[in-house]
Specification:
Blueprint (H helix, E strand, L loop, with lengths): L5 E9 L3 H19 L2 E6 L4 H7 L5 H7 L4 E6 L9 H13 L4 E7 L17 E7 L3 E10 L7 E7 L2 H18 L4 E6 L7 H13 L6 E6 H10 L6 E4 L1 H14 L7 E5 L7 E5 L16 H13 L3 H17 L13 H11 L1
Parallel strand pairs: 1-2, 1-3, 3-12, 5-10, 8-9, 8-10
Antiparallel strand pairs: 4-5, 4-11, 6-7, 11-12
This protein binds 3-isopropylmalic acid (IPM) and manganese (II) ion.
3-isopropylmalic acid binds next to helix 4.
Length: 356
């Protein structure tokens, strides 16, 4: 992408504290865009539990069509105490991932300076890896059903779907990413080939085949249960992990807490194809009890904006944001927990802008 392009970003603040953290991410985005000479257009979209309760709409077709014209979506949080679990997750978040075929879920796991990890004796030099999670298949595909629902003979199925195309494009992207990252040059496939002998055999065979094209990358393998152990015991072992959707969901929460928790962890839902629409989000939820109090941590949302820039063709701007974030966590913040940061939400946004 050349710098003559206009980077068009759809902003979905969402529910609870989502709009507050997103406002700080937008503040930082605008500041770095000015410094780097990036031309952009931002547009707000009203989506989430509030809109659903008001209008009964979750993701209207005309909104999807309009979102399709943007390069990226910056998402705050969706989730509302008055909306049943699953409704917004499936109807909005997963719907967007699937509709825009965002087949990579990118979760950088980096312990920023000054951030506390629950792991004794580990510091920023030890916790710095990336999880590449497949984002469109597996048990998330929504294949399954009930038989004799509500009776003592009830049967429920929830089928894990894996396709050659789906795992190959994810694995290939992960190899490319590992090469570009240029650190240990090690890609670890995390799966469960000893039990899931069909689906994860497909992943295994595909991984071995694609690995042949990347002789500069060490192709490594961990069972998912062992990975959970190693991630806690020796996080420094990992460089890049590639994994299935369901396992990726689970291990990235474990990884997220190692890097300081939901206040700092960010994720990208990426469609790497030309013209693809990607979506970036802080990993934390809408934390409704903190809404409007200026106490929630915006670092994860700001990091999501940094990732958005990095993945949208502005790596220098993205890295500039990540450096500024680390200088703020390292020198200005007392804690990453809501209400204990030593500053308010808005002030953290201002500090990151100053550090740019
Ligand atoms: C995540 C979340 C989602 C997921 C939920 C909210 C549907 O946990 O992004 O990891 O399971 O993918
Ligand atoms: Mn999750």
């Amino acid at each position: 992408m050349s710098n003559n392009d206009i980077l068009r970003v759809a902003v979905v603040g969402g529910d609870g504290t989502g709009p507050e953290v997103t406002a700080e991410a937008v503040k930082v985005f605008k500041a770095v865009a000015a410094l780097e000479g990036i031309r952009y257009e931002l547009k707000d979209f009203d989506l989430g539990g509030e809109r659903f309760l008001r209008t009964g709409e979750i993701l209207p077709e005309d909104v999807v069509n309009e979102l399709a014209t943007f390069k990226a979506i910056l998402l705050g949080a969706v989730g509302h105490p008055d909306v049943a679990p699953g409704v917004l997750e499936k109807g909005l978040l997963l719907a967007l991932r699937f509709r825009f075929d965002q087949y990579i879920n990118l979760r950088p796991v980096k312990l920023f300076p000054g951030v506390e990890t629950p792991l004794a004796g580990k510091g920023p030099g030890d916790i710095d890896f990336v999880v590449v999670r497949e984002n469109t298949e597996d048990m998330y595909a929504g294949v399954g059903g009930w038989l004799k629902k509500g009776t003592p003979d009830e049967v429920a199925t929830q089928t894990a779907i894996y396709t050659r195309k789906g795992c190959e494009r994810c694995i290939r992207w992960a190899f490319e990413f590992t090469r570009k990252r240029n650190q240990k040059k090690q890609l670890t496939l995390v799966a469960k080939t000893n039990v899931l002998t069909y689906g994860h055999d497909l992943w295994w065979r595909t991984f071995q085949e694609v690995a042949k094209e990347y002789s500069d990358i060490k192709a490594d393998y961990n069972h998912v249960d062992a990975c959970c152990m190693w991630m806690v015991k020796n996080p420094e072992y990992y460089d890049v992990i590639v994994t299935t959707n369901m396992f990726g969901d689970i291990i990235t929460d474990l990884a997220g807490i190692l890097q300081g928790g939901m206040g700092v962890a960010a994720g990208g839902n990426i469609n790497p194809d030309p013209g693809g629409v990607s979506m970036f989000e802080p990993m934390g939820g809408s934390a409704p009890k903190y809404t409007g109090m200026n106490v929630i941590n915006p670092i994860a949302a700001i990091a999501a904006a940094g990732m958005l820039l990095e993945q949208s063709g502005y790596p220098q701007a993205g890295q500039r944001v990540m450096k500024a974030v680390q200088s703020v966590t390292g020198t200005k913040m007392k804690s990453q927990a809501a209400g204990k940061m030593g500053h308010g939400t808005k002030e953290i946004g201002d500090l990151v802008c100053e550090a740019l």
